[in-house]
């Protein structure tokens, strides 16, 4: 059923974290695991930086889809969560886009985050429209830790 909404990025649905700028404390693969985890060790965390800086992770969705909602979970990250999060998307055509590729389209402008919380983005704040995407890139500004990312949508 093409109208069913599910987590396009979940590992159980074929999602894979394919590249990232840094995974100093926690691996990018943790972002797509089920549940909210048990501590900071089962999230994705980058090293601290000074000055202008961003870190990012590229996720291949399990299937091409129309994105309706994004959830960024900072569970267990109380003092080292990112100040802001941004999400971009790219079509499946052309293979995996590089982190700095011009194929990325911003679907979530930078949004303030907080500690130990599921941040939900949908409706007017999410600019995905009816685009059919095969990849998402989550940008954390400037750095920090994220437990999970969920990309809810329907098959495109």
Keywords:
156 residues, mainly beta, globular
Fold and architecture overview:
By secondary structure, the protein is an all-beta fold. The protein contains no helices and ten strands. The chain has strands spanning 5-7, 16-20, 44-45, 55-73, 84-90, 105-112, 118-122, 133-141, 145-146, 148-155. Strands 1, 2, 4, 5, 6, 7, 8 and 10 form an eight-stranded antiparallel sheet that branches. It has a two-stranded antiparallel sheet with strand order 3-9. 38% of the residues are buried. The mean pLDDT is 93.
How large is the count of helical segments?
0
Please tell me how large the radius of gyration is: 14 Å
Shape call? globular
User: What is the beta-strand fraction?
Assistant: 35-45%
Q: Helix share of residues?
A: under 10%
**Spans where pLDDT lies below 50 across 5 or more residues:** none
- Give the SSE string: EEEEEEEEEE
Compute the number of strand runs: 10
Please describe the biggest sheet, giving its number of strands, its sense, and whether it closes into a barrel: 8 strands, antiparallel
Please, what is the average pLDDT?
93
**Distance between the ends:** 11 Å
Structural class: mainly beta
